[in-house]
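Example 417, ligand manganese (II) ion.
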Amino acid sequence: MELPSQPSVVINGTRLLARIAELAQIGAIEGTQGCSRLAFTDADREGRDLVVTWMTDLGLTVTVDAVGNVIASTGNAGAAGAVMAGSHIDTVGTGGRFDGNLGVLAGLEVIEATLAADIDVKRPLAVAFFSNEEGSRYPPDMMGSLAYVGGMSVESVLEVEGADGTIVGDELERIGYRGPAPCPGAVPHAFVELHIEQGPVLDNEEIQIGVVEGVQGISWTELKFVGQSNHAGTTPMALRRDPMAVAAEVTVAARSIATDLGGPQVATVGSLTLHPNLVNVVPAHATMTVDLRNTDETLLREAEKQLMNSVQQIADREDITVESRSLARFEPVEFDKRVVDSIEAIAQQKGLSTRRMPSGAGHDAQMMARICPTGMIFVPSLDGISHNPAEHTDDEDLIAGAQLLADAMLALTEVTW
Ligand code: HGY
Ligand code: MN
Ligand code: MN
């Protein structure tokens, strides 16, 4: 792609790092550099209020839509026709300070530096934080951006019940972020998300920038095994209908499916709850989640098929009933080649080392790719650690990623599709 000579702007790295640190204080996890701001909790509201203050202090037009997505833009048409950056500021319960937050604060920094440079930019700039990207408290993940692009109705978002029994609509109301702006939202000219890799590739290969070509497919299933609670001491093994024994075998089966399929296939049992969860009671039921992912949709479907076959065989043998429901299901996504190519060309022009790669994690960009030309920029995660308070990315990598975001966004203001 022939790169237009884009207006250049230098971001203020010190200001960016200071904002990352300040936001990380909200929901800070004692003794770590991580934070916990589950979607629509008080900590999430506090984080939202801080970032909205930074947006309004810049004089940006800030809108809140019906599912709590927040869009700040230099024009008064919101995201319509804008070159938009964005990500999320909600975190998993034991989150790091960079996952999502970097993409939002870097987007804000690009706008602030551009306004300060007082240069003529052909299109409005915008930055968003989308609601509940993590999906840990309320599935699916990328909930806000999925609604923003019309992939999930506002009504169905508002009625989702969380693992803790609360309802999205009530919590959004309670934290004051059930806004008036329309959802689905306006279509941007282009969308670019800067994000930490959250995996080991860039760090291992000592490469500065990941040029992300797409996002792998995601399949979340909740399995509830119903047995018979009984006395741990008096019930002979042959007479038991033990749902925990089934959950354990299914966990091992999920792991073998991933290792047998090989390649990028991954399988995770991240949550398991027993009822009544007591030392001397054979459980009545066990509820677990299985997260399967693959860059190849056919192989992901194969993994799902094998999982459910194993579930049924093991449950039948143990005389256990199974209730299953899908919590999230997204096919693999490819980003727009023109955006991917321009991110790569600009990075290389700047002398940054790059490599093309898929994203193992889900991102709001995979939803925005449904409505406009979209790309992503990765910066290295130390030892590939993420969804862990120890998550770390070096300052110079954060700043290099944010500067590349600025260059890419401004280049995109110059192109017409
Ligand atoms: O689950 C994911 O990949 C993302 O962190 N929500
Ligand atoms: Mn993220
Ligand atoms: Mn995450």
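Summary: The chain has a mean pLDDT of 97.
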